[in-house]
Structures are given as C-alpha cells and as structure tokens.
Design a protein that fits this description.
single chain, alpha/beta, Rossmann fold, Zinc Finger, Delta Prime, domain 3, 5-stranded parallel sheet, 15 helices, 7% strand, binds zinc ion
Length: 344
C-alpha cells in the first residue's frame, strides 16, 4: 500500500509526500478532517516511510518493516488509542507514550507515534502531551489524527503542522464502490448518503442497509400513515415490545444501526421539504416517486416537525440513548394516535 490508495485527498497527500521527499516533515503533524476520509491510512503511510530502511522519502511497502507498520506491530511505532471500553485516550497512556519516545529506537533510526483520535484526549491528557510536543526527541515524529481539532487545546494545535483532509466527493466514492463490484445505481445512492466518508459508504453497504432503506421508505412513503409497530420495528428491531424479531447485537450496535436508518429518514424528509419549496431532490433521486408521494401527503409544517423529531433522535443516540425508545418515539411522531397500548 502507499499514498496512492488514499482517494480524493490530493492536496493533503501532496503536502505529506513533498515534506517527506524534502526531508522537511514537521516533528508533530495534525491530520484533521471528517471521519472515514483516509486520515489514519495517511498517518500509517507517513509512519511507514519514516521507519522503512529504504525511506524516509518514500516507503518501499514491501519490506518487513513496512508490513509490520501496516499491521500495527512495529516496535518503533507507538499507536495510542482509547483502551477497550473507553471513549478517550487517558493521561496514563500519554505519560507512557512520553516515556517510550524518550528511549532509543529498537530497530531502525527513527520512531513514530500515532495518536488517534487525538481529540478524544481530555485537557489534562493534552497538557501531559505538551512537553513531548515541545521538545520531542530528534528521532521521533508524532502524528495526531483528529476529527474535531477544535477539541484540541490551542497550545497543542500550535505545536503541530496541520494537514487538512476534506470530505471525499460523491463521484470518487461512487467509482470506488463500483470498482468493488457494487451495482452502479446502488453506488450512486450510497455515495450521496455517505456524506463524503468512505467509512460511512462501506458501513451502509455492509449489512442490509440498502434493503433496510427500501423497507423504511415503503413504510413512511405510502399513502396512509405507517403502522406504529411496523415502523418502530423497522427502525429498531424489538422496539415494539413483544416482537417476533429479536433485537440483535449489543446496545451499541443497535444504536449504530438505528442511527444510520434515522440518517436515511432525515435525508428523505430533507428531500421532501426541498420538493415542497421547489428546490428539488438531492439525495433520494432513485426513489423520486416515493419522495413526492410523502411530500404530497404531508404539509410543510408536518414535514418540518418530523424532520426535527428525527434529528433529535440522532442526537439522542449520540448520547447513548436506548435505540428502541428512540425508535418508539419516532414511530409515534409518524403515526400519531396509533401507538398500541402497553408498548414500551
Ligand atoms: Zn519498506
């Protein structure tokens, strides 16, 4: 693998490759940008180039060192990420990193540290990193990866050379999916739903997201308000209480599945609102008739209210709300007065 496999980030990669080639790579990098656009892959490529015996201008990609960086098991690459069950990188992990980068490399001439996601560090952990950022050992490069760089202290940001990664264009994502054997029409739809993220596009492709979307749209876009139970079950299996479809997966997996369906529903409502204002369909062009049917059945105010309820549901899930409760609430908004007695 090399930088060429990272698609749609020409500017960021040009900066990194030229800095490596000229021997002018900063001792601390901040790769910033949305989720799933290639930041981590780029960070690993930089580490590979730095540690490769044939580098550091360019990694050979073929030697044992390159292979071990790729697998995250190189003794001179320190990968710092939240420990299992935790959401943030702890101050203890940062102290351990500082201790390790102060030692000599075990194998080659250089060391690299990958901190991902750096924005998961609380201010205390970030402060603990400051000294290493200020006076890094000569042979060490620190690579911070962050989705929201505003969560980093200004003192941390100012000590890093920032490289911005942008949302990937829909065209690039669609071509990538088609290249992996996805039918062109599905690829087009997913690329619009992915919001510029490869990770998101692949997530949607995996599992049965495409079929789930179909089922969801059939339910809400029919001429009648959807059945409360059917809709709640579609958004989160098990949401209607005594369902025959057992709720599968951990609470977190259920939340993620529900969140991705709610995002689809949100896009559908946003398109309906655009139809109402004459602005036209943006995301759901493949199901234009269903969008128009739903837009025709509901008023602008009703659509706006539903859009808000769904947006709130997505926010609640991001705060770890129970997926089934959120699904029930949304089903109630779509089918007012049709919630069965005794459902949770
Ligand atoms: Zn190599």
């Amino acid at each position: 693998m090399s930088f060429e496999v990272i698609l749609g980030q020409d500017e960021a990669l040009a900066r990194l490759t030229s800095a490596l080639a000229n021997g002018r790579l900063a001792h601390a990098l901040l790769l910033a940008g949305p989720e799933g656009v290639g930041k981590r892959m780029a960070a690993l490529e930089v580490a590979k180039a730095l540690l490769c015996p044939n580098g550091p201008a360019k990694a050979c990609g073929a030697c044992p060192s390159c292979h071990r960086v790729q697998r995250g098991i190189h003794p001179d690459l320190f990968v710092v990420e939240p420990e299992p069950g935790r959401t943030g990188i702890s101050i203890g992990q940062v102290r351990e990193l500082s201790r390790r980068v102060a030692q000599s490399p075990l194998e080659g001439r250089r060391k690299a540290a990958l901190i991902d996601p750096a924005d998961s560090m609380q201010p205390a952990a970030q402060n603990a990193l400051l000294k290493t950022l200020e006076e890094p050992p000569q042979d060490t490069t620190l690579i911070l990866v962050a989705r929201d760089s505003d969560l980093l202290l200004p003192t941390v940001r100012s000590r890093c050379r920032r490289v911005d990664f942008k949302p990937v264009s829909g065209r690039v994502i669609a071509d990538f999916l088609i290249g992996r054997g996805t039918p062109a029409d599905t690829a087009e739809v997913l690329s619009r739903m992915a919001g510029g993220s490869f990770a998101r596009a692949l997530q949607l492709l995996a599992g049965s997201r495409v079929e789930d979307r179909q089922r969801l749209i059939c339910l809400v876009a029919s001429q009648e308000p959807p059945d409360w139970k059917d809709l709640a079950e579609c958004i989160s299996p098990g949401a209607s209480g005594g369902s025959s479809r057992a709720a599968k997966g951990s609470p977190r997996e259920r939340r993620e599945g529900t969140a991705s369906l709610l995002e689809m529903l949100h896009m559908l409502l946003a398109d309906c609102l655009r139809v109402k204002t004459g602005a036209g369909i943006v995301a759901n062009f493949d199901i234009e008739n269903a969008v128009k049917a739903l837009a025709g059945r509901l008023t602008f105010d009703e659509l706006s209210k539903l859009e808000k309820v769904v947006a709130d549901g997505i926010i609640l899930l991001s705060f770890n709300a129970d997926a089934r409760l959120v699904a029930g609430r949304i089903a109630t908004a779509f089918s007012p007065g049709r919630r069965p007695v005794g459902s949770s």
